[in-house]
């Protein structure tokens, strides 16, 4: 299942924990999933499974929001709104693209190539 051509997700954290996390990626309302499998895959590529946990509102990662936001930006998402509400800092991210996650895979390949070059 590829991401829809227009995908939106919400990332948040307690306002007092903005520098250190944890960070919550909110449920997207996809039937039978709290978070779309493609979103989980994006998170797993940059965060170990030990840092990810199920939450009643989505998936929580122990990493700070800045890292999670960068992960999604690298996957083609753009921060379209940022606000504070009820003691939480929230970011709304949107991805508008054709071809689902094809661009994500290319980005991962580029990162692997860069890592290989650094090792040499």
Automatic annotation (TrEMBL):
Region (Disordered): 1-24, 94-120
Biased composition (Acidic residues): 103-120
Domain of life: Eukaryota
Bias (Polar residues): 7-24
Protein name: Uncharacterized protein
Organism: Didymodactylos carnosus
